[in-house]
Amino acid sequence: MVKLTSFVVEDNSLALDMLVNDITTHHKEIEIIGTAKSVVEAAKLLQKKQPDILFLDIMLGDGTGFDLLEIFPNLTSKIIFVTASDEFAIRAFKFAAIDYILKPYSNEDLESSIKKAKQQIEPQKEQLNILKQAVTNPKDNIKKISLHTQDKIIIVNIEDIIRCKSDNNYTTFYFKDKSKILVSKTLKYYSDMLNTHGFLRVHQSHLINKSQIKEFIKSDGGYIILKDASNIPVSVRKKGDVIEFLNSF
After folding, report:
1. Is the same domain home to 125 and 183?
2. The domain that contains 22 carries what CATH number?
């Protein structure tokens, strides 16, 4: 069996020892060639040899994991990000559509991440930029989102999204340029992400950009006409939210 090499960067001694132990115990095919607790220490060791897989904590004592990636712009290692249960960090990973291990993690989480690394599923540079901006400046409003389609990853401006429509476990995004993108995640997933970015769930199957509302028609059960002339039904339960928003002007 051909072994993969790995390197672990984690500034918490207990978490570092636990991750090293879990890798060596449950993943015999992976050889750990080094560990580090800081950006500086990791940079010195990675100059000597780059691993197949880099386990990288986001927040380190002397900087962030992104600082390390900037030191090695041509890093060939597959990256498995590790992060604590931080609300802003989790939000950042979701917008960037990048996989991560959330501490405390399960053996299943670790196995899944390693499997994806073996399959060479890695984030694009622009995804990393979204993640870096969101993690390092958590109070800034995220302006882009990564969407996974069946065959590629597309980075879009959130303000260009007109609406989203549910299709069982899939969601279709509709844009100002009349294009659309189908992704294999539920509308609830995106509704939870975008509700603080000017989006409103007006129906079980519809999420709309508030800035795209043209008018609200009260008859026929109630429906919204958007600037692209789309007619979006409003559920009885959501009608109060729509009227409250329109009365706020």
Report:
1. no
2. 3.40.50.2300
Q: Are residues 76 and 178 in the same domain?
A: no
Question: How does DSSP classify residue 142?
Answer: P
- The range of the structural domain enclosing residue 115 comes to 4-136
Secondary structure of 184-206 in HEC code, one letter for each residue: CCCHHHHHHHHCCCCEEEEECCE
Based on the fold, state whether residues 128 and 215 are members of the same structural domain. Answer: no
User: What SS3 state is found at 222?
Assistant: coil
Mean pLDDT, rounded, of the chain: 88
* 228 lies in some domain: yes
- 156-175 burial code (b ≥16 CB/10 A, e <16): eebeebbbbbbeeeebebbe
Beta strands in the chain (DSSP E): 4-9, 30-36, 53-57, 59-60, 63-64, 78-83, 100-102, 144-148, 153-157, 161-167, 170-175, 180-183, 199-203, 206-209, 213-217, 223-226, 231-233
CA dihedral sign of residues 100, 103, 106, 111: positive
- How far is the C-alpha of 177 from the C-alpha of 189, rounded, in Å? 24
- The token duo for 143 is 């302006």
Task: State how far the alpha carbon of 127 is from the alpha carbons of 55, 95, 153, in Å.
Answer: 18, 9, 9
Instruction: Give a yes or no: residue 141 inside a domain.
Output: no
Q: Which helix (H) or strand (E) holds 14?
A: helix 13-26
Q: Percentage of residues in the chain with pLDDT exceeding 90?
A: 47
Domain total in the chain = 2
Q: What is the tens place of the pLDDT at every residue in 65-124?
A: 888 988 988 888 888 898 886 676 777 888 887 888 888 888 898 998 888 888 766 677
pTM: 0.72
Instruction: Report how far residue 51's alpha carbon sits from residue 241's, in angstroms, rounded to the nearest whole number.
Output: 52
